[in-house]
Amino acid sequence: MAALADEDPGVRAAALGAILRSGALSGALLQAGLRDPDVAVRRRACRIAARTDLALDALVERLDDAEDTVVEEACAACGERADLTATGVIRLAELATDHTDALVREAAVAALGSLAGEGRVGELGLEPRIIEVVVAAADDVAAVRRRVAVATAAFDDPRVDDVLTRLAGDRDLQVRQIAEDLRSPDDVTGDVTDDATEDPATRPSPVRIRPRRRDADDPAP
Q1: How far apart are CA 56 and CA 74, in angstroms?
Q2: What is residue 186's predicted lDDT score, i.e. its pLDDT?
Q3: Which residue from 76, 104, 111, 198 puts its CA 20 to 30 A from 146's CA?
Q4: Which whole-number Å values give the CA distances from 96 to 25, 33, 42, 144, 198, in the listed order?
């Protein structure tokens, strides 16, 4: 535990990961990491918070961090938290719409799609608002549009279906591929395919998205 108070931020960041692996991580320790003065420690703490049910309030605070790379990690972590509050979801929606860093907007859209897919957005009664955000984000840069295409799978709404159809004709190859992979056979061909008789060779390949930005000094937890 003494390593968490070390003057070297690299030691403090490594200590958080070691304590997580040992099973001794507490909410207070993670909270301290999330509020650490060093950027790398806060990023590491965000990634650890994604794997626990600890320090939710401190994690949501990081959505307003002064450092964009921390905000990006916090968005990703919030997308993994089934206990995320309405306050956190709404802040993600604001970041997806208004943040100046495209990588933050991308991470926020991805988080909203993940939360919607797990039912958390619906549980909080926020689905109409989040659908509006996803629809608007379909006009963002290509990396964000890729996340939008994936996020559409979490919603059953005509506006989202229209967005997916539009993205299937996007100028970006990866956006088009993801949208086509996610569209139903009926949308693509006009014929309904029976899953039980579908030839596996004709099924779309899994959707893959490039990894988020990560600095060289930031090892995984």
Answers
A1: 11
A2: 56
A3: 198
A4: 31, 25, 21, 9, 37
State mean pLDDT over 17-45: 95
In this structure, the answer to whether residues 130 and 101 fall within a common structural domain is yes
Number of folded domains that form the chain: 2
Question: What is the token pair recorded at 192?
Answer: 């309904």
Q: Work out the pLDDT band at 131, boundaries 50, 70, 90.
A: very high
Helices 142-151, 173-182: inter-axial angle, 10-degree rounding: 0
Average pLDDT on 189-209 reads 40
207 part of a folded domain: no
Dihedrals φ, ψ of 66, to 5°?
-70, -20
- Rg of the Cα atoms in the chain: 19
Q: 170 near 148, Cβ under 8 Å?
A: no
Single-letter amino acid, residue 80: E
213 lies in some domain: no
Domain containing residue 107: 82-193
Q: How many CB atoms lie within 10 A of CB 181?
A: 17
